[in-house]
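In pairs, describe these two lines:
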Amino acid sequence: NVSRLPPAFTARLVDYLRAGGGALLVPGDRTDAAFFASWVTPAGEPLLPARLAGRQVQGHTAARIEPASFTHPALKLVAGESQSDVQRALISTYWRLEADGADRDVVVGGTLQNGDPFLVERQVGRGCLAMTALMLDRRESNLPSLKCFVPLVHELVYYLADHGEGAMNLKPG
């Protein structure tokens, strides 16, 4: 939930991602959408996987996550209703994310029931930048109070930390 980042950070982030690193952007109520829209690689390519198109405040009816839409590898563990309570998440506020469907480097990994993206990822070199539509604390949803929260965050971190690295274990002998 940072509003802006130093310009030198973007260049270092692009280098890190191109080399195979993974990062997660979690926008919040202080996030400056115009600043993040200006994030581009040195070649002028967009860095964010989706445009921050505005804050959605739900009012009396909470938005809900659509587990059946989870195609992202980091979300698959919490997608099944028999093993997860993610469908009980009630979201009061989130960022409406607009992903470019024609961009082959962008994948929507899961949506809300209204079709708005929940998680979007952009391939950057050998790495990736993922972005959620909501903060991962209790200010915008009850997600952190659900049993699925720790496995969800664990799988996201594990996926991003392992992205592009390949198998590092050696067979004995």
Notes: Helices lie at 7-18, 33-37, 149-162. The first strand starts at residue 22 and ends at 25. The beta strands are 22-25, 51-57, 65-66, 93-98, 106-112, 117-124, 127-132.
